[in-house]
Amino acid sequence: MEIVNLLSEIAVIKDAKTRRISSWDKSGRNADYWIIKKGEKKVLADIKGAGCITHIWMTQSPKSLYHFRKVLLKIYWDDEKNPSVLVPVGDFFCLGHSIVNSFCSLPFSASTDNNNKFDSTVALNCYLPMPFNKSARIEIENQGEKDYVQYFYIDYELYNEPLDSNIAYFHSQWHRENPTDGWGHEIRVNTPEANIVNLDGKGNYVILSAEGTGHYIGCNLSVTNLQGTWWGEGDDMIFIDGEKWPPSLHGTGSEDYFNHAYGMQDNKFLFNGSSIHEKNTGGYQTSYVFHLTNPIRFKKSIKVTIEHGHGNHLSNEYSSTAYWYQIEPHKPFSILPVHQRLPLYKEGNNFVNPKQRQTPSKKIILNKEMIKMKKLWKKKN
What we know:
about 375 residues; Jelly Rolls; 26 strands; about 10% helix; globular
C-alpha cells in the first residue's frame, strides 16, 4: 500500500490533458456569462472519457431572495440516472442560510465585499478532486422565481487509460431538520437538567446515511439558534457498517467535532472553522470540518450523526452538507422542495419560522428522566 501526502502528485509528470469549460463569451466580447432562466435546468459541462475535475469556480448575480438555497448544483458520473451531488449551491460551497462571507479552507473558499449578507455576489471555489471513468455532467437548476446571471470555470484532466478499480467517486448530499425534535428546548445548555443519559443516539440529527464502500471526508453544519444561548454540547456519533451501540467514533461535543473548544470561535482554518459566525449575523451559524488526513472509512455503510444539544434537548434549525467518496453505485437520495429549504428570517430580535418552511417532525416520547428534568427546570425558573 502506497502512503502519499496531500501534495505528493505535484512533482509527478502525468499522461493527461488539461482542459477547461467556462462561460466565456464565444463572440469575443465581454458578456462572459450565461443566463439561467427561472425554472431552467442548464448543463454547464458534459465531459466524455476518463478524467478528473480539479477545480470549480462560480459566481452569480442573484435576483431572487434566498437565491443560494433555491439554485441547485447537480453532478452525475458515468451516465448514472441519480446524481451523486445534489446540494443548494451556497451550501455546497460551505455558505449556509443563503448568506455570503469570505473564508478559506483547503477544499473550499469564498470571496465577497459584502460579508455576512443575504444573497449578495460572491466568488466560490471548490478544489476537491472528482474522478470519473466514462463521463461527468454538471448541471445547475434554477428553482427560483427570477432569471439570474451565472459565470463559471470547470477545470479538469482527461486520461488515456481508465481509472484504477480502487478509485472512488465524489458525492455530496444536503439534509435539513427544521426544527430538530428536542424534548426540552426551554432548558438552557450546560445545566444539570439538560444532562440526561443518551446511550443509543436514536434521536440524533443525521448528517449522512450512505451504503457501499468508501470514506467520509467531512461536512458543514448550519444552525439557526432559536433558543439564543449556546446551541452545542451535542456529541457526534458515527456508526460504521451497520454497527450497534456504541459506535466506532463517539465524540465529546458539537464544537469538539468541529475541532474547536468552549464554543465555536470566529475563525476559518484549512480543515475546520466557521464560514459564518453567529455573533456577526445575529444567530445564523455555519461550521465546517474536513477529514482529509483522517478520512472515516466504511465497507458496507456509514451513518454520521450528532446530537442537537446534549441528549437532543434543543429544537433549533439544522441543515448540513456531507462530503464523501465511494465506489458506485450509491444509494439514491433526494432533496427537500424549495419552500422547505428556505432560511428562517428575523423580525426585530426574534426569528420567524413559518409553517411552510418547517420539515416533518417526529412524535417525542418522554422517558422518566426527561419528565423529571422538565419539572425541575420549570420549578427552578
